Amino acid sequence: MILTTTPNIEGHTIKKYIGIVSSEAIIGANAFRDFGAQIRDFFGGRTKGYEKVLTEAREQAMCELEEKALEMGANAIVGIDIDYETVGERGSILMVAASGTAVVIE
């Protein structure tokens, strides 16, 4: 399956627009990671723990997006948009939402 943020796929013709497909992945960040992030925020530097969690959440959301599109009969998703949010008390829960248009291409 081809997944893209663009509205079309070079070299392919969209034969059928099936519909909007979306997915969410929500992952809690543990207290140790939060503590480490606070220290890095104070002294500067990257927060590898959060980067890993965001990567995992994005991959989960994209896999679910692909599964839903396959169930709808699509062989590609165009116009994918990925949003990142923090939710919950103290923003300790990370959410990644992905959406796009499921299509059939030649």
Account of the 3D structure:
The chain is of the alpha+beta class and 106 residues long. The protein has helices at 31-43, 48-72, and strands at 2-3, 14-28, 76-87, 93-105. β3 (76-87) and β4 (93-105) form a beta hairpin. The chain is elongated, with a radius of gyration of 17 Å.
What proportion of the residues is helical, as a percent range? 25-40%
Low-confidence stretches at least 5 residues in length (pLDDT < 50)?
A: none
Count of alpha and pi helical runs: 2
In spatial order, strands of the major sheet run 1-3-4-2
Report the end-to-end length measured between terminal Cα atoms: 12 Å
Compute the CA-based radius of gyration.
17 Å
As a percent range, the share of strand residues is: 35-45%
Shape: elongated
Main beta-sheet strand count, sense and barrel state: 4 strands, mixed
Number of strands: 4
The average pLDDT score comes to: 85
Sequence of secondary-structure elements: EEHHEE
Classify the oligomer: single chain
Structural class: alpha+beta
Sum this structure up briefly:
By secondary structure, this protein is α+β, with helices and mostly antiparallel strands.
